[in-house]
Amino acid sequence: MKLPVAITGMGVVSAYGRGQAALLSGLASGKPAFSPVTRFDVSGRRAHVAATLPDAGDLGTELATVVEAACTEAGLHDRADVPLYLAFHGDPAVSRAPEFRHLPGAFASRLGSECGLGPVRVYTSACVAASTAVADAAAAISLGEASTIVVAAGYLVEQDQFALFDAGRALATDGEVRPFSSGRKGMVMADGVAALVLTSAPSDPLAFVSGWGRAGDAYHVCQPIPDGSGMARAIDGALRRASLSVSELQYVNAHGSGSVLSDMAESRALHLALGQIADSIPVSSTKSLHGQSLEASPLVELVATVLSMRQGMLPVNAGFLAPDPECPLNLILHEPLAATPAHALSLNSAFGGANTALIVSGP
Which residues of 278-295 are buried (b: 16+ CB within 10 A; e: fewer)? Predict the structure, then answer.
């Protein structure tokens, strides 16, 4: 018998501020948290905007803060045997300081020790790292291999990755993320740190991770397969694990990076996996509000999805200019949509053709 996988605690930091209330307020406002970059010099860059928290501390401190917030909400005090699954890009100091303490494994072990958690597993698989960690944790819990797992993820905007994505012309030079819109120009990088407590024995669940799916494109090192078939397989897998039909899904928090090719492929994936439902199901990408936090983004988006479902408010797909005939979706525009979906789908994809789908269900 498969055990339920409940979310019982959450912690989050975004450019809107620290805590769930700050993120929920930002989502409800419909106003992106983007501003000119002042953390480092961008005068020689094409893009000059990011979503950053002005008083952000170092990554380790911010991660410890969200883990503690999630564990406190979940009432998780005895943590010595609770695993930590950590998704992050890496300690920003690693390229400049060769000491062992900056390597991903050592960084994660130090964080686990500081938070009083047990064994640690590290995920660095690009923009599906956090969603892959959630899928692995959910699988372990549902099979009875673990009763409780903490999943955490973090990224703070720093100059090396900003320069890399800017040189690759992946950043939006107009400073806006415009998912599925004509005239979209790319992504806006963002601070994002989040943590979830997942357990099979919930006393007061916030939501359930009821389905998860993963699939690879095997197509191109950085471009998605144009027909969306890889992501469609991930969605199919998540629906099967959740024992849901496509008609039972009521919201999609799309990957929606604002990339021309990625958004087109994702739209096709939704039509391929959901059929006619793709014409009517509400869709938005919360990246258009809080930005893209690389490895951590899926966990920030999952928190955003849970908060929105519980609030009965589905966020807008911000930055929209005009329809793109290659992306025929029922986008939430202009203002949040009043709705309390029983089941929502959160999607992510990454360079290398990796795709993940997570289904969140209400308690």
Answer: beebbbbbbbbbbbbbbb
Provide the sign of the torsion angle of the four alpha carbons 345, 352, 174, 279, taken in this order.
Answer: negative
Question: 3-state DSSP call for residue 177?
Answer: coil
Q: For the chain, which residues make up each domain, given as ranges? A: 6-180+188-199, 210-361
**Shared fold status for 6-180+188-199 and 210-361:** yes
Q: What is the DSSP string of 31-98?
A: ----EE--SS--TTSS--EEB--TT---HHHHHHHHHHHHHHHHT----TT--EEEEES--GGGGT--
For the domain 6-180+188-199, what is the CATH code?
3.40.47.10
Domain 210-361 is found in CATH 3.40.47.10: yes
String of b and e for 328-363 (b: at least 16 CB within 10 Å)?
Answer: ebbbbeeebbeeebebbbbbbbbebbbbbbbbbbbe
- HEC profile of 146-158: CCEEEEEEEECCC
Confidence of residue 116 (pLDDT cuts 50, 70, 90): very high
Considering only CA atoms, which of 183, 129, 177, 170 is closest in space to residue 151?
129
What pLDDT was estimated at residue 9? 98
Task: For 273-287, write each residue's pLDDT tens digit.
Answer: 999 999 999 999 999
pTM of the complete model: 0.96
Strands 17-18 and 330-331: unpaired
For residue 208, pLDDT over 60 is answered with yes
Helix and strand numbers (H, E) in the chain are 9, 16
